[in-house]
Specification:
The protein folds into 2 domains: 26-126, Immunoglobulin-like (Sandwich), CATH 2.60.40; 133-238 and 283-300. It is built from 5 helices and 17 strands. The chain has helices spanning 2-15, 60-63, 208-216, 241-252, 290-295; strands at 32-38, 43-49, 69-73, 78-84, 92-99, 107-113, 120-125, 133-136, 140-144, 151-166, 169-177, 181-185, 190-194, 203-207, 225-240, 273-286, 299-300. Strands 1, 2, 3, 4, 5, 6, 7, 10, 11, 15, 16 and 17 form a 12-stranded mixed sheet that branches. The relative contact order is 0.17.
């Protein structure tokens, strides 16, 4: 009986509150940045918030951070970023590096300064280069790679390139991604394709059934046309600790029953907010063993 009374009192207490809740916290003039070093891009971009929402009757002019400067250093060299004007980006400043080659497995320091704000700093170690190996076992395809201390998570993909041939003439080229799992629903009428998600594991398994099912969709009906498998491409995206933590935190709030507090989701920038991380891609290109391709009823180049 005591428990029932307590529950009723709690419902009345929270249900009768009329205080307005605002998701906006106290105004604080600091740099907010999003910077991800990516070896897929020769021109690195760092996004810095330079204008805050109007609150507490503070004028927009007072809120804008002026004389913003962004610098990247590897300890031996400095790489100043230049401010770039992008249409429709009044609240943000985009700083670009020009041509900049990221050294794998190296440490970088980020510095952001401006008028009336504390200098924001952060440091990361970029992911080291990966050696990717594909194993073709009797019942599966296994993708394996290394897990280094500076890397926390991976995202990988497995593609197959093939073409339709009629005699000696190539009719059309294709490149398709192979799902890691196929789920049959609605009494076999529909198929759900599940692709690899962000993971901490440094290996992944693809089934031959998924590979065969995807190729079978493109098998020509005409007897004089053949599907010829050219090669496979396996890619691995390595995420450093900071980018992995940021992505995991943001995705955590997609859960409809989670409780979101009025606080920053994830930040690794001292005297500022935001994320400074790194991602790097590695790939391996090779042929599927001919006996497997022919076993599926296709041709191998």
């Amino acid at each position: 009986m005591k428990t029932k009374i307590l529950v009723i009192v709690m419902i009345l207490f929270f249900g009768c509150r009329k205080d307005d809740f605002s998701p906006v916290g106290n105004y604080e003039k600091r740099a907010v940045a999003f910077a991800v070093l990516d070896n897929r891009m020769g021109n690195q971009i760092i996004k810095v918030q330079s204008l805050y929402p109007d609150k507490d009757n503070i004028s927009l002019l007072e809120k804008r951070i002026t004389n913003l400067k962004v610098n990247l250093s590897d300890g031996n060299n400095n790489f100043p970023f230049r401010d770039t004007i992008i249409q429709g980006s009044e609240n943000f400043s985009y700083f670009t590096s020009g041509n900049f080659n990221i050294n794998r497995g190296s440490k970088y320091w980020l510095t952001i300064s401006g008028d009336d704000i504390p200098t924001a700093t952060s440091e990361i170690i970029t992911p080291r280069a990966q050696d990717i190996t594909l194993y073709y076992a009797s019942d599966k395809i296994q993708l394996k790679y290394s897990k280094y201390s500076s890397v926390k998570g991976f995202l990988h993909h497995y593609y197959v390139e093939f073409y339709i041939r009629e005699g000696n003439k190539i009719i059309q080229n294709y490149r398709v991604e192979i799902p890691s799992e196929l789920r049959i629903i609605n009494d076999g009428k529909d198929t759900i394709r599940i692709y690899p998600a962000l993971t901490k594991e440094n290996n992944h398994i693809f089934s031959y059934s998924s590979l065969f099912t995807e190729l079978e969709k493109y098998k020509p009906e005409a007897i004089n046309r053949k599907l010829v498998v050219k090669r496979t491409i396996a890619t691995v995206l390595s995420l450093d600790y900071n980018l992995y933590n940021y992505v995991s935190t943001v995705r955590g709030f997609s859960d409809p029953v989670s409780v979101r507090l009025d606080q920053i989701n994830y930040s690794n920038i001292a005297n500022g907010y935001g994320v400074f991380g790194a991602v790097a891609i590695d790939s391996v290109i090779e042929k599927i063993p001919a006996f497997l391709v022919q076993g599926f009823g296709f041709e191998s180049e």
